[in-house]
Amino acid sequence: MRIALPYIYRKRTGQGCNPPLALLYLATSLQKNNFEVKVFDLDGFSGGLQEMIAKIMDFNPDVVGIPIFTASLKDARIACQELRKRSTKINIIAGGPHPSACPEDTLILFPEVDFLLRGESDYTICKLIENLQNNTARPEIAGLSYRNGGSIVSHPVGVAPHNLDDIPIPDRKLLWDNYQKGVYWCIGNKGTTDLMITSRGCPFSCNFCFKLESGYRFRSPENIVKELVYLLSLGIKTIHFEDDLFTVNKSRCINICRMIVDAGLKLHLKVRSRVDTIDEEMLVEMRKCGVKAVVYGFESGSQKILDNMNKKTKVDRNYDVIRMTKKVGLQCYADMFIGFPGETPETIAETERFLLKARPTAINIGILSPFPATQVYLEAKKNGTLIGDWVVYGQWPYIKLPWMKDLSTLRKHLKRIKRRFYLNPLVTFNILRLNVFNMNLKQWKGAFLYLYSNLFLRKRG
User: Fold this and answer.
1) How far apart are CA 77 and CA 107, in angstroms?
2) Do 110 and 68 touch, CB atoms closer than 8 A?
3) How far apart are CA 42 and CA 21, in angstroms?
4) In 10 A of CB 200, how many CB atoms?
5) What is the CA radius of gyration of the chain?
6) Label partner for 437 (CA 20 to 30 A): which of 45, 215, 305, 431?
7) Long-range contacts: 248-254, Cβ < 8 Å, 24+?
8) How far is it, in rounded angstroms, from Cα 160 to Cα 190?
9) What counts of helices (H) and strands (E) characterise the chain?
10) How much is the pTM?
11) pLDDT band at residue 429, thresholds of 50, 70 and 90?
């Protein structure tokens, strides 16, 4: 069977563009099971979605597997409609975050979709396509949802893959044309930027996060080094570890760093962490192995809001970690948002003061749009404070706070925070110092667009 895996969510921003790593995982698993598979990434098509659909049809697939993201329902809807319009014989399988959170709603919203796979599908997609090929029954497939007459059948999600070393390393040659064309890059880095994961899952339970699997599973250091050697053989030196939490286990983190050093790998790495799973020893070891930057989910500068989120971190610790990270010589990036239940002008001002005083290298801050099936989403819907919802057309939902007029109130606060942070001469100088010598013309254009979007706050949705 011929299987097309299109990625229809544009990842390109002023900061760069990432390869669709999760789709490469699925495609590589299918290849290992002797299926003919081709990956299509929307960011690689200058003609947009219609050009990509045409290329998919030229491939003449038997099956199309589409990941559906909550934030890009419109493009997914158009893609499914176009595929079905051009062929009634193709089996369309949907997966990804939105179907995992809302399987029944997704099948209603996407009548063209034949099957949904919820959760991690490295093995289940192979089993489903084998059954389609052999025209056999499918009830034993964990996480499968489909229509049966006028009703929807959903099988329980099974146990997620435990031994991640057994999952094949993603084959980048599946998108090699895009790699060679320079589609995948990151601002401030020369050459291609790629993604890797060294673990799956997160042991924490923040109220704004959705996950089917609560366990934390990891790859062995040997398996990680094997993939790094493979990427270096392709000429890729800049790699971002996209684990939810790279530093959850100190001894494992340090072991990985030392194995990278012992292997003599010269890399430019970026990792994600929490402030309560990091210390100076780990930061030093990470710097030695090529880590240049750490991204922290600070979320808020208000202790009240952090407690409401069930974040289980402290603002004082956030300050300490930023100082410690910069002291070791690493860049420090902050993920944050405003608009969580309990937010007030005073708590927003606390977040603003935190950022202006701590001065992380850069910030990624926005307004909370609660994702389906998260605790904050379910409570807001129950309380009647959820304004809007995740639909194909329209703006993203938000939570109405008692003191707000409408979403414009939060936008004004957000615009002020971004402008005050990025117009701080010390922040601007530091960003230029770190990036100016590594930026080409495309990246200068991206930097301009990024600053424009931050300082003038383009609308979402």
Assistant:
1) 11
2) yes
3) 14
4) 20
5) 22
6) 45
7) 248/199, 248/202, 248/203, 248/216, 248/274, 248/277, 249/218, 250/277, 250/279, 250/281, 250/282, 252/218, 252/221, 253/282, 253/285, 253/286, 254/281, 254/282, 254/285
8) 36
9) 17, 19
10) 0.93
11) confident
